[in-house]
């Protein structure tokens, strides 16, 4: 009888939230084949599987519009409002306390809960350093492998959107993963200074390839589309980010897809779906931040047809071995969060060509 009551209660909770009204506010635009597109997929997944009533709003890159838009949406009858990136952190810290009856989710950063009055905010962080360790190791194996498009020089590339902590957390994992395979690896590190400038991304990565890199890692949002263009133009390898970028571009440009060995998946879509499912079940830990890594399927490597066709089995087996060592705690990947600027600079300088 007790079990039956528990089941009935769970059913009633789900029914009560079956038409949960959810708004996703994109502080940019869709079409990046990466971060924001992944967030949108999370909403679509929740619509199909959870029955939510979802709306996706592209706020564009005019930052002066972001706070008024968030307040306008909060004034409407949405139950949950989702925003993302460090650029929305302070805005949400100001706005969320004004609407204590609303639920807010922020991804890829955390609000400062010590400020108080943020019990209605759930923050999703990702252990991008763990996923980047895997692709750093892969890049280091590929660059001197003798595979097509490679040269004998142990030089790989990294393109970051900005020199900021979340991007440098990718970089720390990438460097450590590459050095795990080859302590003498060299990495050409470039920052574009923007997340919406594909032309700049292409220019920087073309320079990397000309300087001897034969594979480069895209951590630059829409700017990173330029990296994929550069890989195709120079007939070099690319590593995508956030979404499975080979599958994202294959219909439009199959040749470009064939230059993307894999992508470091930051599973924004799955994390948003998970948060909404937990909200419906009454289990989402609002008032707290959670960091999702390999163990929580928050990050990982895209195991698609291109990865299996391009990357030799012995390399794929090595990546699986490394993944298991991280899960077992036998490899501990450093994070930029809490790292001094001096130590970060030392790490970057240690791989400078």
Summarize the structure.
Helices cover 45% and strands 18% of the residues. The chain has 353 residues and is of the alpha/beta class.
Rg from alpha-carbon coordinates: 21 Å
Anisotropy-based shape? globular
- The strand line-up of the biggest sheet is 2-1-3-4-5-11
- What is the total number of structural domains? 2
Q: What fold name stands as the CATH topology of the largest domain?
A: Rossmann fold
Mean pLDDT: 94
| Structure annotation, total helices | 14
- Poorly predicted runs of 5 or more residues: 4-17
The level of helicity is: 40-55%
Q: Strand content of the residues, in percent?
A: 15-25%
The CATH architecture of the largest domain comes to 3-Layer(aba) Sandwich
CATH class category name of the largest domain? Alpha Beta
N/C terminus separation: 69 Å
For the record, what is the CATH homologous superfamily label of the largest domain?
Response regulator
| Main structural class | alpha/beta
């Amino acid at each position: 009888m007790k079990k039956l009551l528990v089941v009935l209660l769970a059913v009633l909770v789900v029914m009560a939230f079956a038409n949960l009204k959810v708004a996703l506010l994109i502080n940019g635009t869709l079409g990046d084949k990466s971060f924001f597109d992944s967030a949108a997929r999370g909403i679509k997944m929740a619509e199909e599987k959870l029955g939510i009533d979802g709306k996706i709003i592209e706020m564009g890159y005019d930052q002066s519009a972001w706070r008024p838009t968030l307040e306008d949406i909060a004034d409407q009858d949405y139950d949950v409002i989702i925003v993302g990136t460090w650029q929305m952190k302070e805005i949400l810290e100001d706005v969320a306390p004004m609407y204590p009856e609303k639920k807010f989710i922020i991804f890829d950063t955390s609000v400062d809960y010590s400020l108080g009055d943020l019990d209605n905010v759930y923050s999703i962080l990702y252990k991008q350093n763990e996923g980047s360790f895997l692709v750093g190791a892969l890049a280091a194996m590929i660059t001197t492998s003798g595979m097509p498009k490679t040269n004998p020089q142990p030089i790989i590339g990294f393109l970051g959107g900005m020199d900021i902590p979340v991007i440098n957390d990718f970089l720390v994992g990438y460097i450590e993963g590459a050095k795990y395979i080859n302590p003498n690896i060299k990495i050409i590190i470039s920052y574009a200074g923007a997340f919406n400038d594909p032309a700049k991304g292409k220019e920087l990565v073309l320079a990397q390839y000309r300087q001897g890199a034969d594979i480069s890692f895209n951590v630059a949002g829409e700017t990173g589309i330029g990296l994929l263009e550069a890989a195709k133009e120079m007939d070099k390898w690319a590593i995508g980010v956030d979404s499975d970028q080979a599958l994202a571009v294959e219909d439009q440009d199959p040749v470009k897809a064939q230059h993307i060995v894999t992508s470091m998946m930051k599973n924004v879509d799955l994390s948003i779906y998970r948060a909404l499912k937990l909200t419906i079940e009454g289990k989402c830990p609002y008032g707290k931040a959670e960091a999702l890594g390999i163990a929580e399927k928050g990050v990982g490597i895209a195991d698609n047809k291109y990865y299996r066709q391009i990357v030799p089995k012995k390399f794929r087996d090595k990546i699986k071995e490394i993944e298991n060592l991280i899960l077992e705690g036998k490899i501990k990947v450093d994070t930029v969060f809490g790292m001094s600027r001096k130590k970060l600079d030392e790490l970057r300088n240690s791989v400078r060509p």
